[in-house]
Amino acid sequence: MYIFFLVLMVAYYVIQPLIVEALPIKKPLDSPLVEKDRVVFYIKLMASSWGTVLVILKLCLLAGISFYDVGIRRIGLNQSVWFTAGTLIACGIYIIAHIYGTIALLINPKYRKEQQENLVKNSSNGATNNLLPRSKKERKYWFFVSLTAGICEEIIFRGFLFFLFQAAFPNMPMLLVLLIASFIFGAAHAYQGIKGIRNTAIVGALHGVLFLVTGSLIPSMFMHFIVDIAAVFLLSEDIKKGA
After folding, report:
1. What is the rounded distance in angstroms from the CA atom of residue 147 to the CA atom of residue 52?
2. Which residues touch 159 (CB under 8 Å, ≥6 apart)?
3. Average pLDDT, whole number, for the chain?
């Protein structure tokens, strides 16, 4: 049963980027989008994420898998002191850097311009740039998109996926589980291009380590939200590229 669930999940997220591309928006993700296009995409993305989580939770109930099993539980530090301390320090620095970056984008026009130029320069395709919020309305939706991603993606790619690998392959080293799950997480963001897959997989691995250290999805959900919401003030309505 666990292997069946695992195969379904892996198969779904191999074709998931194709599903995202097929969402009913008027333009491809790598073509210039207007506010209406982005809002529609945000709504569809949130609906897809929450729908997937509801299906997972229903499967858990039917299969006798508790919410505790998939990481919805209290924080409990049960790893070695040094590994725990190192992970918490690294994640703390990572979170503070994103909070600082968000504030800097809001109050420092020069820094915002530099980040905008870096985004255009380093983006391997137009999808990432196009989907970032620009208008006040888009930013309101982006808050809920970030919150949705923080909750839903952690349940899907950390809690449920980790549990399935451990249940289906009890002897599989946890490091291998972490690497495979992180790769699947990166592949699910294939619309961001090769660099996006690589960077997302690395970030996913960090979230996974935090989950293993704390024994709970709550800290990784918080970190995921902070990382995603950090882009809320990156672009403005006067940015024409991708608008």
Report:
1. 15
2. 70, 71, 72, 211, 217
3. 85
